[in-house]
Backbone:
């Protein structure tokens, strides 16, 4: 079984920056896509950004120009650099990884990001 552990969340003022990390461990054969979702209270979970095993990336429109996703295959880790943070970015951020062959999703426990003055 694959375990995912997020870190880097916290409280930041509007316009500030945070860098989230998600490290994988456990029974890893080959990981496919990795990325990040977020969920605010009372709202559905939504995709933020994704990166494939080959390095192709995509971010949703409302974070383009502010967030950058990257991965280090040697460390089995995915990152989310968040700049110019806004109050509406406040949410629990969850990382995920898929099995390259199975397509099955594994999820982290989530890390809280709060943007407030």
Residues:
């Amino acid at each position: 079984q694959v375990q995912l552990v997020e870190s880097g969340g916290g409280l930041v003022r509007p316009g500030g920056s945070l860098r989230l990390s998600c490290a994988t461990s456990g029974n890893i054969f080959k990981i496919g896509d990795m990325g990040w979702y977020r969920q605010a209270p009372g709202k559905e979970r939504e995709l933020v950004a994704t990166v494939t095993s080959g390095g192709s990336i995509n971010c949703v429109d409302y974070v383009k120009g502010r967030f950058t996703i990257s991965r280090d295959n040697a460390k089995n880790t995915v990152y989310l650099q968040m700049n110019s943070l806004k109050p509406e970015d406040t949410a629990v951020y969850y990382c995920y990884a898929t099995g390259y062959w199975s397509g099955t999703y594994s999820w982290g426990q989530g890390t809280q990001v709060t943007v407030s003055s």
